[in-house]
Amino acid sequence: MLLVTGGAGYIGSHATRALREAGHDVVVYDDLSEGFEDAVLGAPLVVADILDTETLAKTLREHRVQAVLHFAARCYVGESMEKPDLYWRINRDGTRSLLRAMETAGVDKLVFSSTCAVYGIPDEVPMEEDLPHRPLSVYGETKSAMEGEIAEAPVEAVVFRYFNAAGASPDGVLGERHDPETHLIPLALRAARAGGTLTVNGDDYETPDGTCIRDYIHVVDLADAHVRGVERLLAGGEGLTANLGSGRGNSVLEILDACEAVTGKPLARTIGPRRPGDPPALYARADRAKDLLGWEPEHTDIRTIVDHAWRALRD
């Protein structure tokens, strides 16, 4: 049995589905503050707070959990700067709670959902795992701290640093449902559907079309990496830290063009000022995941990613 914290959220629900399809028994632990009960697709669900160490330990023992996949965290950069105490409490302290519960229950295998935000603005791209941690946001700081807590705990851990999670399940059953929504692809799709206008934050970067370049990784490919990561641990393999990205980037304008192509609707855009601290390009070197897990992203075409997001778009 596997425990998935935050398994009713965007990435966690896709991972839960992938684990079950791979033959694993899964129990989801989520407070549903940002997740959705229907997203677990019938998997056993414990609705409780990540800070409730006693309930966590009880869940681990009662379900005879062998390994944990930890997705439960707040994930908005802007919100983290406005509500730093919330982020330290949920992200770092929640991880401490989970690690205490795991030790109490005798569970010593963990797959952790981290982020490329721990790197901040790198000196060079593509970004490798050995880059120093220089986060620019409280969100990135808390994720870096969570990695530190895990490194000091008596667990064997696989740590994944994501780049820009995007897309949805190809059948449209699972998708992205954030409130508020801050990610470019769903915002652009909603604007196209409504006939609205999207603001592009700067068009004078040192990139081919002047807009920022980011590494978009399909959420189904992220889920596949987690299946591989936990199966490595269950087989007695060592922990590791690996980037999960496509190894290439797409500019903001390329994303908007893909949204127009997929929806068949024009997408008006205006040019706004740069956002403070936005680097021109961020994309991953993901060789470690390939070499140690045999993982490679399957859905790398940006129109495919946008098409799947469009199929699952709600509200």
Fill in the keyword field for this structure.
315 residues, Rossmann fold, alpha/beta, 7-stranded parallel sheet
Largest sheet: 7 strands, parallel
CATH class of one domain: Alpha Beta
Distance between the termini: 34 Å
Task: Give the overall pLDDT as a whole number.
Answer: 95
How big a fraction of the residues is strand? 15-25%
Q: What would the CATH topology of one domain be?
A: Rossmann fold
Helix proportion: 25-40%
Please state the CA-atom Rg, rounded to the nearest Å.
Answer: 19 Å
Spatial strand arrangement across the major sheet: 3-2-1-4-5-6-11
What do these coordinates show?
With 315 residues, the protein is an alpha/beta fold. The protein has a domain of 206 residues: 3-Layer(aba) Sandwich (Rossmann fold), CATH 3.40.50. 39% of the residues lie in helices and 18% in strands. It has 10 helices and 14 strands. The strands form 4 sheets. It has a 7-stranded parallel sheet with strand order 3-2-1-4-5-6-11, with helices on both faces. Helix 5 links the parallel strand 5 and strand 6. It starts with a strand and ends with a helix.
Compile the SSE list and pairings.
Blueprint: E1 2-5, H1 10-21, E2 26-30, E3 45-47, H2 53-62, E4 67-70, H3 77-82, H4 84-105, E5 109-115, H5 138-152, E6 156-162, E7 164-166, H6 184-194, E8 197-201, E9 213-214, E10 216-218, H7 219-234, E11 240-244, E12 250-251, H8 252-263, E13 268-272, E14 281-282, H9 287-293, H10 302-312
Parallel strand pairs: 1-2, 1-4, 2-3, 4-5, 5-6, 6-11, 7-10, 8-13, 9-14
Antiparallel strand pairs: 9-12
Helix pairs in contact: 1-7, 2-4, 4-5, 6-8, 8-10
